[in-house]
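New to this. Please check both lines:
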Amino acid sequence: MSTKEQVKRYLAALQERAPGRSVEVRVPPYAAVQVIGGGTHTRGTPRAVIETDAETWLALATGELDWADAVASGRVHASGERADLSPYLPLEG
């Protein structure tokens, strides 16, 4: 499975585990999804954004990397309310 397919697979799994539209999770250049219940986002920059690279996202999703460590090391950029995926990760493992 390609990196793109893996990223999209785990983002879809996150959407199932944390349905909603209050946080946008971006893994450029592959995909972005909206997750976690609360205020909804429809246009412009969302109130909460999480962005990371594909390698980091896959490590988080599989449990190879801890959320707090990823944020502390700058591998994940998280801003805004509810921009914490630690309750939902890992997605497998």
